[in-house]
Each structure stands twice: as C-alpha cells, then as structure tokens.
TrEMBL record:
Keyword Protease: no
GO terms, molecular function: xylosyl alpha-1,3-xylosyltransferase activity
Keywords noted in UniProt: Membrane, Transmembrane, Transmembrane helix
Polar residues bias: start-end ranges: 49-63
Domain of life: Eukaryota
Name of the protein in its database record: Xyloside xylosyltransferase 1
Segments passing through the bilayer: 20-39
GO cellular component terms given for this protein: endoplasmic reticulum membrane
Length: 392
C-alpha cells in the first residue's frame, strides 16, 4: 500500500511537470510568433502606402479624405523581396513596377496638364496588380511643377485599386549628373540653345543606368501624351521577351521623318541600297521614345553599349551616318540602332500607336502609309505632335 502511494504521488508530480512544460512551450511559441509578426511590420514608405491604399479601397468609403503620401527621394536601399545590386536573385522577384515621366514646366502648360490627366486616369482605369505588387511612379520635375503634380495626383489616383508610390526627382540634380555623360551628344541630337531637347535631361534614358540606384534594374519611361487601353502591368511582361544581351525596347517610328528629314537623308543618298530609313518590316525606320523599356541591369553589363556612349564613338557614328537630329535620346537610339540592332528589342507598334499625321500633309503622302500602318491590337495611343487621342 505504501509502495502504491509512492507511485501515485510520483505520477502526479510527473503529470504536473509535463503540464507545466506544455504551458511553457505554448507560451514560448506565441512569444516567437508575436516577435516575428510585430518585428516584420516595418514602418517604411511601402507599408505606409499599403495601409493608405487599403483604407482607400475598403468599400469605397472616405474617398474624399484620401491621403496621398509623397516622397521626393529615391533611396539606395533594396526593396524587400527585390533584386539587389544587379546580382542574380534566382527565384526572387521584385514586386515593384517602376514608371518614369518627364514632368518639367508643366505648371506653365495647360495643354500638357490635360494630357497628363488623360494619361493617368486611363492608367488607373486599366491598372490591375497583385496584392503584394506596387506601381512606383517617378516624376522628373521642377519645384513649381512638383507642387502642381502633387495636387493633380490626389485627383487622378483617387480611384486606384492597387498599391502605388510616388517619387519626385529634382530636374536640376539629375541634369548635373547627366551632363558629363551626354554633353558630347547634344551637338548631334539637339535643336540648339534654348530648344526643348537641348537640355541634358532629355537624354536621361540614354544614361539612366548610371543615374539610378543599383537595386533599380528595370524601368519604363513614357511620355505624358499617352492614353492607356490596357493594364500597364502587361507592358512590363515585354521584358521577358528580351533576348540575351538586349537592354532597350521601343516601337519603331510611324512616320517617314526619321528616314527623310533632318537625319538620314544624306546617308541614304550616298547609299541608295541601304535599309537605313526604310519602312518596316524589312527597313530600319528608327525608334519613337514615347514608350521605352529599359533593362538597367543589362545596360550596366553591356560593354558595347557603354562604349557607344563615349564621345569619340558618338562622333564617329554621327559622321558615318551624316547624322544631325533634334530629338534627344530618340535620335541617339535611332542612330546606334542602325549600327547595332542586336542591342534593341522592337515592340509591337500597338504599344505606342503614334497618331501624328503631319508628314502626310507635308510632302510624303505617297510613302506615309508604309510607315504609319499598324496592324494588330492597340494597347497605348500616343498623341504625338499635339494629335488628339480617340475617345473610348
């Protein structure tokens, strides 16, 4: 009987000890879970934006009180889950989709303000991203235009159902960084002192891989006079079609101006059998920079492309093609595309359906349609040379 009592007491102590252990184990597990949950709630721009957008989209309430967080800096810190420093990240995919627009002198131009409103409203209307994805809108701007842009963005982004971030870049700061790189190009591809494209900033896409942080590896640059007919996220899928070694993509020009006016006319006269300036699909008509896809990582890695930025090589190609243009980066890319088409991926014309018909009425009616024709679906309208875009 005494032995039985000892056994019972011993079992009771063991049972009590195991219960105590179990309680401690549960408490420790909850503590660890709480640590990771609260520790991972970073108070950064992305998480703040996410909370703003979630509150904006919940049952469409409080829309008139929506707050748009604006940041005027682009940090060098890599995004969580993103690509870092141009290294191979394997399965990691950056959930940030970067779009850049030139937004200078807008405060003085009512026409551009209206075009910007049309572009942004159509982008928002068709925009559709996964829950963890963020559309990052970059604007290169002066102080007065930035102030206007902040007010306009409150309106045009109000109905966005996706997360977004807004980044303003100071035009003076970027020009200062760009000028040493693109100075040699300006005399070949600018209209002259004081002209719109004579400023170094309009060569930004040429040297963006030197200006933007290393963790930013892909970006789309677009004009303001666009109207989107599809989800802009789909445009980023075109990066997946780049063959190895290609770093830049744009649709070809849809007018004969590059082929005959200001640019290749003398070279074509001296080389009558050349493909340079001929219409698609077999010719090389040059590019339109209204929609540009830039693989910044590939641009940084391309020894050939970076050699082409050197002043001596710019001068050599410009002399070879008897090239004198006035459209900034568009002229530079068109020229090197004649010599090195392997660097470029040609987008379908529907990704930048250029609507300008000015050259048809100014001497090129017979050949105009050869360049202007665009078969297939239209994803983005481009109202270049102040052409009205179609209504929905």
């Amino acid at each position: 009987m005494g032995i039985l009592k000892v056994v019972v007491c011993t079992m009771g102590r063991i049972s009590t000890f195991r219960s105590y252990q179990f309680i401690l184990l549960v408490a420790a597990t909850l503590a660890v879970a709480a640590f990771y949950y609260f520790g991972s709630e970073r108070q950064n721009f992305s998480s703040t934006t996410k909370r703003i957008k979630q509150s904006q989209s919940s049952y469409n309430t409080n829309r008139n009180d929506a707050d748009l967080t604006l940041d005027t800096r682009l940090t060098d810190q890599p995004h969580e889950h993103g690509e870092q420093g141009g290294e191979d990240t394997g399965a990691l995919v950056d959930p940030h989709f970067h779009v850049l627009m030139m937004f200078t002198k807008i405060d003085k131009n009512r026409s551009l303000q209206e075009k910007f409103r049309v572009a942004m409203l159509s982008m928002v209307k068709h925009g559709d991203f996964l829950e963890e994805e963020v559309l990052v809108l970059h604007f290169v701007s002066d102080p007065a235009s930035q102030e206007l842009g902040q007010r306009m963005l409150q309106e045009v982004l109000l109905d966005a159902t996706f997360q977004y971030e807004v980044v303003f870049h100071d035009v003076v700061d970027l020009t200062h960084k760009l000028f040493p790189i693109v100075e040699a190009m300006q005399k070949y591809f600018s209209a002259g002192s004081g002209a719109y494209y004579s400023d170094a900033i309009f060569f930004l896409s040429v040297a963006m891989h030197h200006i933007m942080p290393q963790n930013l590896t892909r970006i789309v640059q677009v004009d303001l006079d666009l109207k989107y007919r599809t989800n802009i996220r789909d445009l980023f899928q075109q990066f997946d079609h780049f063959p190895r070694g290609q770093s830049w993509a744009s649709p070809e020009r849809c007018s004969p101006s590059t082929a005959h006016i200001h640019t290749f006319w003398q070279y074509r006269k001296e080389n009558p059998s050349t493909r340079v300036g001929e219409p698609p699909p077999d010719g090389l008509p040059g590019f339109n920079s209204g929609v540009i896809l830039l693989d910044l990582r590939a641009m940084r890695a391309s020894a050939l492309y970076n050699r082409l930025l050197e002043p001596g090589n710019v001068a050599k190609l410009a002399d070879q093609y008897r090239f004198r243009g006035h459209l900034g980066d568009q002229d530079f890319f068109s020229m090197i595309g004649m010599q090195h088409p392997e660097l470029f991926y040609v987008l379908a014309c529907g990704w930048n359906r250029q609507l300008c018909t000015w050259w048809r009425e100014h001497g090129y009616r017979e050949v105009f349609q050869l360049y202007y024709r665009c078969d297939g679906p239209i994803y983005i309208y481009h109202g270049n040379c102040n052409t009205a875009v179609p209504d929905d």
